[in-house]
Amino acid sequence: MDVYEAVLSRRAVRSFTDEPVPREVLNRVLTAAAWAPSGSNLQPWHLYVVTGSALEKLKSVAVQRVASGDDWDDREFEMYPATLGSPYRERRHAFAEQRYGALGIARGDVEARQRAAIANWDCFGAPAALFCYIDRRMGLPQWADLGMYLQTVMLLLRAEGLHSCPQMAWSMTRTSVAEVVFPAPDLTLFCGVSIGYEDTATRAPRTGRAEIAETVTFVGDDDLI
Ligand SMILES: Cc1cc2nc3c(=O)[nH]c(=O)nc-3n(C[C@H](O)[C@H](O)[C@H](O)COP(=O)(O)O)c2cc1C
């Protein structure tokens, strides 16, 4: 699989089969992903890979917790700005409409959306998950390093025939994750990433993207840069 194919075939998959992911595959992916770039080569990512009975336990605790309406954990970072201006608000709205529309959930049915969102804490059925932490003393550039690292992981997973779903949702229940992975005290959870083989029977439509002219500006009048 070439890089374009990996990039274009990566999607946030929200339906996995229970086929286990071999440890050696995860090892290979994470060994290669370690070559992701980071400012001054800090490599500020800390990963916990959870599978098997540990993941089953975590899923069951987290799903039960969310389903019973327990309070979320205190936030260590805001997932989104409190007010989203244009064009981000519209993009977020379009995403939610598409995601929940594909599940047959009517616009405005907040309760049904919340019920569907609970699948986050079941890792959408995936048999493996990564939890990506960062030292809370790190700054914005190091958080960006985490993004580059995680995209590298997700592309390498494609090369192995696997799919993934990055999930900040897990940061809302970070204490439940901590009870399973016991992170070092300085670390804070950025997100989880569910990993597995896609259940193609329930494939959701692909998300869209803004036109390139909306997000990219070429400066200069020559074709050769
Ligand atoms: C940092 C990050 C956090 C995300 N958190 C969640 C999440 O908690 N739950 C979820 O279902 N999808 C989550 N997503 C997936 C996005 O919704 C998805 O990437 C976006 O809608 C674009 O769709 P695509 O990845 O299928 O192309 C997250 C993605 C990123 C990059």
UniProtKB/TrEMBL annotation:
Matching Gene3D superfamilies: NADH Oxidase (3.40.109.10)
InterPro entries in alphabetical order: Nitroreductase (IPR029479), Nitroreductase-like (IPR000415), Nitroreductase/BluB (IPR050627)
Alphabetically ordered keywords of this record: Flavoprotein, FMN, Oxidoreductase
Keyword check for Transport: no
MF terms (GO), sorted A to Z: oxidoreductase activity
Family annotation (Pfam families): Nitroreductase
Record's keyword annotation contains Flavoprotein: yes
Residue ranges of domain Nitroreductase in the record: 8-197
The protein's name in its UniProt record: Nitroreductase
Species annotation: Mycolicibacterium chubuense (strain NBB4) (Mycobacterium chubuense)
Recorded superkingdom: Bacteria
